[in-house]
Fold:
Amino acid sequence: MLPPVTHPALRDLIVGNKEITTTKFGFNLLLTNNRISYKKNPSEATVKQLAQATHEFLTRYENLYQSELKQLFSGDYHA
Amino acid sequence: MLNTIAEVTKMIATEKPLLLAGSESALAQLPKGNWIGGTTSYFIDSDGGTFSESSIFVDELPDFVQGFKIAEYSVETLPSICADAPEKGFSVLILPAGSSVHTAYAEGAPRYEGFVLKPVVGWVSGVPLPEVGRTDPKVFNGQTGACFSACAIAMHVALPANKIADVEIVNVFKPGEGDKITFPKAGFVQEQCLVNGKPMNFAQYLAGIQADIRLPLTANYNGSVINVSIQSADEATHVVRLYAPVFPGVEYSFAAPVADYVSAFESALPAKKTDAAFACNCILNYMYANLGGKSAGSVPSMVTFGEIAHQLLNQTLVRLMIHNC
Structure:
């Protein structure tokens, strides 16, 4: 189960303070578009909105994204 | 797989949902049924690259799909495509090349509600190359028999709880070591750019470096390489036309040359070649790599004028995979 949407790793991922290595196209597209959106409008409201969308995406794809979830949330993620 | 019109007619009679690609004259001969279609006359089958005005490429959706809905989209309604998709499933979208819906989706999709969250795959329909600019590419709604050149057609497909759709791309191109190019605005048509931070006219820049425009611009999306192919560069008007939009905030560079496309493609394919539920490849790969009669890997696909893997791509093989979950 994923940690809550307020987990600081999601914020770090969106603002570019955390990197995830993956070959999964959907995630790479989401991540890059998130960072473009944040650069364009670097507000907390943007972070909140993008964190929500990213959390929803990772929840939906949890079974396929085990490696990415472990990289992102480290010990806070348990399959 | 490539089929004759008679074979496809029989498949339509089974009422299974089908994704069809073929020439306008071939698709127009089909009976009404549970299918959507887009025009192209180029295919990659088990025998290699093929041009045919009478064959139809068929993607039959798996038996386990739980339901489907066919929908037509205009520029105004297209932004709701992901919202219209089932909570669990995927959508297949076909856009006529050069239409306003083609431009609208290419430039706007990353801002649509549900983008990436709900997978969208599909293709841009086209015409035989000598007909470009003279004949409009079409899409077909098989349920009504209607054919459009200015609207998009989509099939929204629902999956059972134990299945999930994921989109993969296979791209033989890698960013080269050359200049870093950025653009101030999104779009298919560009005049100004920044080359290594220095403002330049893009057409003049391309002429100056004698760019091989068979190679796409590439952007690195966290390790996934996205191509944008160049349609034309006119030094006189200072205008460069692209086959997909570039976006501000994204850094582009020309792809490194690929010596042997077929070998590069084979090695770029994932080791586990699970059958894709849908696949399409790009007409530019077909042309520039001279794929006529060559196998280009073991992935049969329609050859299209742009590929959709969430957003519009160029010179890329797109595969829709359905996994157990």
About this structure: Chain A is about 60% helix and 0% strand. Chain A has one domain: 8-76.
